[in-house]
Every structure is written in C-alpha cells, then in structure tokens.
Amino acid sequence: MDIDHAEAPVVREAPPQRPTVRAVEPESVKMDEVLKSVLDLLKKLGLGYVQLSQFQCQEAAHTFTSLPRAQQDTPWVLAQLGRAQYEQANYAEAEKYFRRLRVLAPTRLQDMEFYSTILWFLKRETDLSFLAHELVDSAWHSPQAWCALGNAWSLALDHEQALRCFKRATQLDPKFAYAFTLQGHEHVLNEEYDKALTAYRQAISADRRHYNAYYGIGKVYEKLGNYDKAYTHYHAASVIHPTNAVLICCIGTVLEKQKQIVQALQYFSKATDLAPRAAQTRFKKARALLAIGQLAPAQRELMILKDLAPDEARVHFLLGKLYKTLNDKSQAVRHFTQALSLDPKASQQIKEAIESLEEEDGFDDSMIQ
C-alpha cells in the first residue's frame, strides 16, 4: 500500500473569527458623564463667585452649599461661604467657616483680613491675638497679617498701635483698600475726622467698589451733623451692596434725624426684612411707627423686640411710651420701672416719664436716642 497516496483525512477549516469589538460606547458615555459633572461644578463655582461679587449673599451661600460635600469642604469654597455670611453680618456663622478653613489651609492668607474683623466683632480677643501671631510669624510681609495684628490692637483699645499696623499694611500693598478703611475706622474712634476722611478716600482710590469706605465717609458726616452728605455716601454704599441691612438702616437713621420719619420708616422696614433678628434695626422701626401714630404695628414690633432683647432698657422704655399713648397706665408704669432697673443711669428721664403719665403730651424720645 502506497502510504504516500493514502487518502488523507479531511480537515475542515474553522470559519474566520470576527474581530473583537471593544465596548467603546459605555466608555464614551462614562466620559460624557464625567465631563458633564465637571462642567456643572465649574458652572456652580462661577455662579456663586459672580453672586458674591454682586453682594447677592444669600443666593451665593445657597449656590455654594448646593455643591457636593467634598467640594464644600475645600479652602476656597469655605472662604466664599464665610464671606457670604460676613457680608450679611452673620459673624458667628462666618467664624465657623473660617475656623474650618484655617484647619485645612493654615498657610492661606487670602481673606484673613475678613476673618480677623469677624473675630473683632465677636470680641474674641484670645482667638484674634493667636491668629495675628500666626500670620505675622508665617507671613510678616503680607498686608493680611498686619490687618489682623491691627485688629488685635484695636480690640485691646490701643488705637495708636492699630493705626501703625494698618499703615504698614498699606505700605506693603498700596492697593489694599481694606487696610485704608480700617485706618479710617481707627481715626473715627480717636475723633480724628479729617484723617478718617483721607483714609477712606484712599480706600476708594484703591478700589472704586469698596463700599466700606463710602459707609465710613457717611458715618463721619453723620457724626459731624452733615446729614445730606451722610445720606449721599450711605446711598452710594448701598448701591454697591444693596442687601446690607446696616447700610439701609443708616440711610433711615439720617432721614430720621432730618425729621423725615415716613421715609425713614421705609428704610427701617427694608432693613428689618433683610435682617429680621437685628434688634437695633427693629427698635428704630418700632420707634418710627410710634412717632407717626401707627400704634398697632409699633406694638407688634416691640413684642418681637422684647423677645430678641429682653434686657434692653430702651425697649421697655419705648413700651412704656406706647402704653402711655394707649392710656394703659399700669402697663406703662410696669415697663418704665423695668427700664429703670435695667439702666439706672437713665433714672432721670425714666422718672420724668413716669411722673408725666397724668399729662397729655406728645411722643417724646428723649431717652431712646
């Protein structure tokens, strides 16, 4: 048998395999989702930044708190949240954000001038001194460090040392508007009004939108009794920062001092809407309502105010005036007496008010300026 010619077994060839196609579509979808999330994040960060730049503080805070938790707990976002609360005079809340920022980024200098001012408002002398010490030790060449040190001296009532620190800050950075404004505030405390005006104007030259300096000029003119100029500068500040309740209240105050009570009431009402828990603003609103004879609204405001500031003598004095006008002598005596116990220094005015209960006199705010 010729094995070379033997019938060979039939070998079937396997059909050609189709080339493997990788699942690129799911990867593409995943990349699109990642890109979308990044763009959404950048959009929110940008929106919050713009809102805060325009002093839409509540909106900015809402935007930043809508970020993912991991993004909220970053130094930059914490600084923006702290600024948003600071600009609304919510100093205790602002302090929490800046304190957390210091834990995460102890070498960060940006916005530390605001943190030191927040501690100044809260009268946290030890914390402020510690912050100033840390900043000067780590970055003595920065204006933020010298602002913090100046605020620490200011809280300790050493205004001359504070001024030296603020001036050093402006030497380090002549465009650092906030340091000029802090200089102005110290000059006001020293009753050096011409120097204060110069400092505030230097702040405006450094930053035309620095509303704090316009406020400072308004405060100087108010102290000097030039209410027209005070109004002009308070109004200029409020145009830049339209949601600042303090500025709105200041406009109302100068109108009230010019006996324009109805117009003043409009500003006090707006300021109260912006800051419902601001006792001083609500007090001025109640006083204006009482002055124009709107007794029921005045009483409502005073009841709220009594809960906000139960130990404030002026509130009880005004309640005494209200009940005197309503011819409720027992309640009038009760609140006048409570005012006397809370503020013995005002005993002469309060006693005169009690003695005048039998008289038909008009509204008198002698004690409650």
From TrEMBL:
The family classification in the record reads: Belongs to the APC3/CDC27 family.
Please provide an example of a Pfam family that matches this protein in its UniProt record.
TPR_16
Region described as Disordered: 1-21
UniProt-listed InterPro entries: TPR-like_helical_dom_sf, TPR_rpt
- Keyword list, A-Z: TPR repeat
Entry protein name: Protein bimA
User: What are the BP-aspect GO terms?
Assistant: anaphase-promoting complex-dependent catabolic process; cell division; metaphase/anaphase transition of mitotic cell cycle; protein ubiquitination
Keyword rRNA processing present in the record's keywords: the answer is: no
Its source organism is: Pleurostoma richardsiae
Mind telling me which residue stretches traverse the membrane in this protein?
none
- Positions of TPR repeats: 75-108, 143-176, 177-210, 211-244, 245-278, 313-346
Entry GO terms, CC: anaphase-promoting complex; cytoplasm
Q: Does the keyword Plastid apply?
A: no
